[in-house]
Specification:
Length: about 500
């Protein structure tokens, strides 16, 4: 496979509150894709970070009795600290209060102004302080409420600078036509496109009352609406993520922005228009996932009923959480999660389907063949089920189908378990007349385990490392069944997913 660049981002998270499972989810999704592309040999850059300006942060700081910068410092440290805990391999963590970011934002916004895409006007509209966003009449919930936060909105009137979003309607429609996968899944693309086709209004670019925001370079009395500052992070970060190096030409345009549906409009409508206005090539693609719904009451025996990512990871490890979320909730859709559901999948799928398979296979190779993988032929029936798996898996992840890709691997894990039951190696071991059949069965089981474990590297980074080391696998590139000959020494492993006490 030829090496390509792959630049993937998460939203930058607001520092008005602490990280929670939703933030972990988007970040783990981006991490799955980053790891997968590294396995393909691609030149990957994975960016995450924090969004530190704007009214929500200003208000939260006031409430907490600290300065916005102090609140930002405290919470940004928590977000940054989350990354190693969830095993995210981000290449950089951007903070928008970093002067290296703010200087670049000023340059880019000045260019937008110089290019004539900024006008002065009076804004009158419904403003949601939690979204930090003006809502159009079409977007209002019942009784003039915010459809996302379900709080009553105030009508605000102010003198403002505007970004001429309306001028980009035709170009945006053209972009959507040219690139059918600009936004995935398709129903989100349709949502964004119909928003564009419904007629775009100019958007407010500054706020006169805001204190915690960047001054407009051409009118420093006004502060920049936080979304312009925030969206630009995807580009500015490349300029300073590596000391003394500018990575912009190497990685821009971004290959994939990952986010949930709450910020679709900003990314799928405003962002590409802002890029065009600033003479920046728009990103290639974005994937919009759903919400994890955490409200239900199903309790587990060991975790209570709040799926706290830190508690889960503390007890079961990051792999188990990553696995559960991508397996349980079809990526792209909303989905309910629960501690009881987590424990169920942990026991039946991770501990039994996969963990036990690994322990059994390694134990049998040790017992029957002194820990050396016999050299043998690929089993024809197994080969049929594994045929093309790597390519199909790659195609699914190219479409950011994280759940379907995992389902594909799990079908193979279950196929291997059936293979054990069908062939009954412990019976073959007693039949000294046909040692070759036992060689063949053991070879195929090790091969199968190796192939599925390589596929699982992005989802189960910790466990797969342990197991691949035990299997004597040196590389991490994806492999087809039968691509490695026998002869390796394998080692037993302690239970990969210990039983829940
Ligand atoms: O919107 N389920 O920041 P934010 C799934 N700063 N994902 C969830 C989630 C849930 N229940 N809750 C949050 C912002 N998320 C802006 C972004 S980008 C230039 C600026 C995830 O802290 C999901 O990715 O409110 C969502 O889009 C994001 O957190 C919102 O994070």
């Amino acid at each position: 496979m030829s090496s390509e660049t792959f630049y993937v981002t998460t939203p930058i998270y607001y520092v008005n509150a602490e990280p929670h499972l939703g933030h972990a989810y988007s970040t783990m999704a981006a991490d799955v894709l980053a790891r997968h592309h590294r396995q393909r040999g691609d030149d990957v850059f994975f960016l995450t970070g924090t969004d530190e300006h704007g009214e929500p942060v200003e208000n939260a700081a006031k409430k907490a009795g600290v300065t916005p910068q102090e609140l930002a410092d405290t919470n940004a440290a928590k977000f940054e600290g989350l990354m190693p805990i969830i095993d995210a391999t981000n290449d950089f963590f951007i903070r928008t209060s970093d002067p290296r970011h703010t200087e670049r934002v000023a340059e880019i916004m000045q260019r937008v102004y110089d290019n004539g895409w900024v006008t002065k006007g009076v804004y009158e509209g419904w403003y949601c302080p939690r979204c930090a966003d003006f809502k159009t009449e079409r977007e209002l919930g019942p009784g003039n409420t915010c459809p996302i936060h379900e709080i009553p909105l105030q009508k605000e009137r102010e003198e403002n600078w505007f970004f001429q979003l309306s001028a980009f309607q035709g170009q945006l429609e053209g972009l959507y036509e040219e690139r059918p996968d600009f936004v995935v899944p398709e129903f989100r693309r349709n949502e964004a496109l119909s928003f564009i086709k419904g007629g775009l209004e100019d958007v407010s670019l500054s706020r006169p009352n805001l204190k915690w925001g960047l001054p407009l370079p051409w009118d420093p009395g006004q502060r920049m609406y936080v979304w312009f500052d925030a969206l630009l992070n995807y580009v500015t970060a490349l300029g300073f993520a590596r000391e003394g190096e500018d990575l912009t030409d190497r990685y821009w345009p971004a290959d994939l922005h990952v986010m949930a549906k709450d910020i679709l409009k900003f990314h799928a409508v405003i962002w590409p228009a802002l890029c065009l206005a600033a003479e920046i090539e728009p990103p290639r693609r974005m994937v919009i996932h759903g919400y994890l719904l955490m409200g239900e009451k199903k309790m587990s025996k060991s975790l209570g009923n709040v799926l706290d990512p830190f508690a889960v990871i503390d007890r079961f490890g990051a792999d188990a959480l990553r696995f559960y979320l991508f397996r349980e909730v079809s990526f792209g859709q909303d989905g309910a999660i629960s501690t009881a559901g987590f424990e169920q999948r942990y026991e039946t799928e991770l501990a039994n389907d996969y963990g036990n398979l690994a322990s059994r296979v390694l134990a049998m190779v040790e017992r029957y063949r002194d820990g050396v993988v016999p050299a043998a032929q690929v089993d024809a029936t197994l080969a049929e089920d594994f045929e093309g798996a790597v390519a199909r898996f790659g195609d699914l992840l190219d479409r950011a189908e994280l759940t379907q890709a995992l389902d594909l691997v799990w079908a193979l894990v279950r196929r291997l378990n059936r293979f054990v039951e069908e062939t009954q190696p412990w019976v073959l071991a007693k039949d000294e007349a046909d040692p070759e059949r036992l060689d063949e069965v053991l070879y195929n089981l090790v091969e199968g385990l190796r192939v599925v474990t390589l596929l699982l590297v992005p989802y189960l980074p910790g466990t797969s490392e342990t197991l691949l080391a035990a299997l004597g696998e040196e590389g991490r590139a994806l492999a087809e069944l039968g691509s490695r000959e026998g002869g390796q020494k394998v080692e037993r492993v302690p239970p990969l997913f210990p039983k829940i006490e």
